Amino acid sequence: MYIFLCEDNIDGIFTGIYDAWASRRGHANVALTTHAPDNYSLFDEYVTVRTDYEKSAKVANTLHQRMGDETYQEICQAASARENSSRKKSMDKADAIYKTVVLALSLPDAGKVLNYLAEPYVNRTFQLSRSTGNEAHHLLGFLRFQELENGLLFAQIHPQNDVLPFLGEHFSDRLPEENFMIYDKTHNLAALHPKGKGFFITDTEGLDQEMLTRFSPEEMEFCRLWCTFFDSIAIEARKNPKLQNQNLARRFQRDVVEFNRDRPSRRR
Q1: Rounded to two decimals, what is the model's pTM?
Q2: Degrees (nearest 5) of the Cα angle 251, 254, 258?
Q3: Would you state the pLDDT for residue 84?
Q4: What SS3 state is found at 71?
Q5: What is the pLDDT of residues 35-91, one digit of tens each?
Q6: Per-residue pLDDT tens over the stretch 96-112
Q7: Which of 139, 163, 95, 121 minimizes the C-alpha distance to 267?
Q8: Which residues contact 152 (CB under 8 A, 6 or more apart)?
Q9: I need a labelling partner for 187 at 20 to 30 A (CA). Which of 9, 237, 254, 259 fits?
Q10: Angle, in degrees to the nearest 10, between helices 120-142 and 164-174
Q11: Which residues of 110-149 are buried (b: 16+ CB within 10 A; e: fewer)?
């Protein structure tokens, strides 16, 4: 078995798919993984994949053309899912996606590949995609932008999955004439959007954390007004913290002003 070790992100996995396919070893003799095994097997050959954006783009173009927008988006969501390394998985994320792609490109209609849920690797890809998609959907509703002193719109999130590409695309379309930053504190990444341009993702090493706490006077006032409104419509006898936590998971609450009064926020 030839095992390709690739980075745990969309470009890394797509590069792994490209290299595995180009190796011509036979799909049954190839596997992909995003993490090195604890114990290397004597009977397997390990190939380290160096992320190549040109190779990744070629795979992305092929999948997009053959699968269509919706299924391609779901494959990207699956590649963006984060796995718990402490739990043993029956199938590696990258390998599940690779085998799903192989099946898809053998079908007359590649866009229907995720209907084959009886196949374990397709089911795995579907579950990973749903995890990322659900989290991105929640954050599209609960993400809050704050206006900093320098006029930058800033939002902080703590996602489990790598949802920045999907959030960045959404808000770039919605706020094309704004300078904004979405800071993924869990993975130390940020989606930056300069006014009138596309967004890009960068690491946050060296980010001035103190700057992120300096809000504009207007932001402080909006925070005060919003919290006053939130309190005024609340009915004391109908408070139900348990139901509230079901509707808005506690891990999202740290970034929502109603649950963190010392951190002003402005919803856009």
Answers
A1: 0.82
A2: 120
A3: 65
A4: helix
A5: 877 777 777 888 999 999 999 999 999 999 999 999 999 999 999 998 765 444 557
A6: 999 999 999 999 999 99
A7: 139
A8: 179, 180, 181
A9: 259
A10: 40
A11: bbebbeeeebebbbbbbebbebbbebbebbeeebbbbbbe
